[in-house]
Specification:
Layout lengths: L2 H9 L6 H13 L4 H14 L3 H12 L15 E5 L7 H11 L4 E4 L10 H6 L10 H10 L2 E4 L7 H11 L7 H15 L3 E8 L8 H17 L3 E8 L7 E2 L1 H12 L5 H17 L5 H13 L2 H12 L5 H4 L9 E6 L4 E6 L1 H13 L13 E4 L6 E2 L4 E7 L3 H13 E4 L9 E6 L2 E4 L2
Parallel strand pairs: 1-4, 2-3, 4-5
Antiparallel strand pairs: 5-13, 6-9, 7-11, 8-10, 8-12, 9-11, 13-14
Helix pairs in contact: 1-3, 2-4, 4-9, 5-11, 5-12, 5-14, 9-10, 12-13, 16-17
The chain binds uracil.
Length: about 450
C-alpha cells in the first residue's frame, strides 16, 4: 500500500477502505508517513469529507494509537464532558464539582488554549500551586476520594491526535467535521469514561458556525460513542458571544467561583446547569428536569463550591483563592473601553474577541509561548445589551501597556454597535442523543 494512492483516492472523492485508514494512522504515528503527505491527506479530507464509516474507523485507530485509560478500579459511573472550544468557556470548573458533589465521578482530561480559544488547564494553573501534570495513580486517587479531578493527559494518550492536531493547526485544516469528530472522540474513548456529554459550540467563536453544522457534528460524534459502548449525548450551545463576562485565565476562575456562589451571569449559569443536568441524567441520577433542579440546588447550598475547593486543594492549589478570589489581584495595566455613542450591541465576532484577549497575554500564538494568568477582558456589554455614550463597554487587563492599544482596536472592530435592538438569540439550541435531535429553541 502507498500513501500516495490513498491521498489520490481521497482527493478524487473515493471512500477509503478500513485498511487504507489503518495504514495512514499507523504510518503517521510511527513516522514512516511524513508530515507533507499527512497534510495533503488532511486537505483532501477537508474538501472531500469522510463517510460515517470512514470517520468511525479513523477515530478508533486514533484512540488505539497509544494508551487506553482503564477507569474500572474507580467505583461508580464515570462521566466525561467535552466542549468543542470557545471564548470565555469556563464550564468545566463549575460543572465538574457540581456533578461530583452529587456523587457522580468526573475524571476529566483537559487541554491548553491555542489561538482564540482558552484552555481549562491554563485557567486552573492560574490558582497558585495547582498541579495539572499529575500521574495516573494520583489522578485516580483524587477522582475516587474527592469525586472529580481535572488534569492534562497522562501517559501516551492518543499520540495520533497530538501529531495530527498540531499539523492541522498550521495547515488550515482544523475546521473539518470528520477531523474534529475523530480528534475529540478518539480522546474521549481513550480517556475511559462510561458516559460522555459533548458541548458542541455554535457561532462566530466556534468551529461550527451554524446550528445545522453543529448538529451534524454532534450526530456523528454521538453515533461513534454509542457504537463503542459509551452512552453519548450532546448539547448545541451558543458561541455567537463569549460565555459569561470574563475572558482570561484568573478572571475566568473568579467568574466560575461567583457562579458556584450563585452570583454568576445568567448565560453561564444556565449553560452550566444544563450541562450538569445532562451529565447527571447520563449517569442515571434522574430525568433531565430533576437533574436540573439538583444542579441548581448544589449552587444554592454551596456544595458545588465546597467540592471545587476540595478538588483545588487535592491538586496542590491554594484553596484560599476559591474562598476569596480578591487574592488574585489584577494585572498592572488597565484600560477602560467606553462607548463613544449610544445604542445597542448588535453582534460580536467572538473569535476576534478571543484574539483580543490573547493579544493582552491571556493566550498563546505558538504552543511554546507562556501566558499571563492575570491578562484578559471583562465585558460589561454583550450582544443584545443597551448602552449610552460614555458607558463602560469592557475593561482590558495586561502586564504590558504596549499591548492595550492593539487589543482595544481588535475588540472595537469585533463588536458591532447600532441603533436598533438585535433579535434575541437562543442560548441552547438542541440536545442530540442516540434517539434523535430535540430542538430546545
Ligand atoms: N477540539 C479538539 O479536541 N479537536 C478538534 O479537532 C477541534 C476541537
Amino acid at each position: 500500500m502507498r500513501m500516495y494512492d490513498i491521498i489520490e483516492a481521497k482527493r478524487d472523492g473515493r471512500e477509503l477502505t478500513d485498511e487504507e485508514i489503518d495504514f495512514f494512522v499507523k504510518g503517521y504515528v510511527e513516522g514512516s508517513i511524513p508530515d507533507y503527505q499527512a497534510a495533503a491527506f488532511c486537505m483532501a479530507i477537508y474538501y472531500r469529507g469522510m463517510s460515517e464509516r470512514e470517520t468511525a474507523r479513523l477515530t478508533l485507530d486514533m484512540a488505539h494509537s497509544g494508551d487506553m485509560v482503564d477507569l474500572s478500579s474507580i467505583p461508580g459511573v464515570k462521566v466525561d464532558k467535552h466542549s468543542t472550544g470557545g471564548v470565555g468557556d469556563k464550564t468545566t470548573l463549575i460543572v465538574a464539582p457540581i456533578v461530583a458533589s452529587l456523587g457522580v465521578r468526573v475524571a476529566k482530561m483537559s487541554g491548553r488554549g491555542l489561538g482564540h480559544t482558552g484552555g481549562t488547564l491554563d485557567k486552573l494553573e492560574s490558582i497558585p500551586g495547582f498541579q495539572t501534570a499529575i500521574d495516573e495513580s494520583r489522578f485516580f486517587d483524587i477522582v475516587s476520594t474527592v469525586g472529580c479531578a481535572v488534569a492534562g493527559q497522562t501517559g501516551n494518550l492518543v499520540p495520533a491526535d497530538k501529531k495530527l492536531y498540531a499539523l492541522r493547526d498550521v495547515t488550515a485544516t482544523v475546521d473539518s467535521l470528520p477531523l474534529i469528530a475523530s480528534s475529540i472522540m478518539s480522546k474521549k474513548i481513550a480517556a475511559g469514561s462510561d458516559k460522555i456529554l459533548l458541548d458542541v459550540k455554535c457561532g462566530s467563536g466556534a468551529f461550527m458556525k451554524t446550528p445545522k453544522d453543529a448538529v451534524a457534528l454532534a450526530q456523528v460524534m454521538v453515533r461513534i460513542g454509542e457504537n463503542v459502548g459509551r452512552t453519548t449525548a450532546a448539547l448545541i450551545t451558543n458561541m455567537d458571544r463569549p460565555l459569561g463576562h470574563c475572558i482570561g485565565n484568573a478572571l475566568e476562575v473568579q467568574e466560575a467561583v461567583r457562579t458556584l456562589q450563585g452570583e454568576g451571569p445568567d448565560d453561564l449559569t444556565d449553560v452550566c446547569v444544563e450541562l450538569a443536568a445532562g451529565m447527571l441524567e447520563l449517569a442515571g441520577v434522574g430525568d433531565v428536569s430533576a437533574c436540573r433542579s439538583a444542579a441548581r440546588e448544589q449552587i444554592a447550598n454551596g456544595k458545588g463550591l465546597d467540592k471545587f475547593a476540595e478538588m483545588v486543594a487535592a491538586q496542590g492549589g491554594d484553596a484560599r483563592y476559591v474562598r476569596d478570589p480578591k487574592l488574585f489581584g489584577t494585572d498592572s495595566c488597565v484600560r477602560e473601553v467606553r462607548a463613544t455613542s449610544s445604542g445597542w450591541v448588535r453582534r460580536m465576532d467572538t473569535e476576534r474577541v478571543g484574539i483580543a484577549s490573547a493579544v493582552l497575554g491571556a493566550g498563546r500564538e505558538r504552543k511554546e509561548d507562556s501566558i499571563d494568568p492575570l491578562a484578559g477582558i471583562v465585558l460589561e456589554r454583550k450582544t443584545g445589551d443597551e448602552f449610552i455614550e460614555g458607558d463602560l463597554l469592557a475593561t482590558l487587563y495586561s502586564a504590558e501597556e504596549s499591548r492595550l492599544d492593539d487589543a482595544e482596536k481588535i475588540l472595537r472592530d469585533a463588536v458591532e454597535l447600532g441603533d436598533e435592538r438585535p433579535d434575541p438569540e437562543p442560548l441552547i439550541y438542541a440536545r442530540v442523543t442516540r434517539d434523535g435531535v430535540e430542538r430546545l429553541s
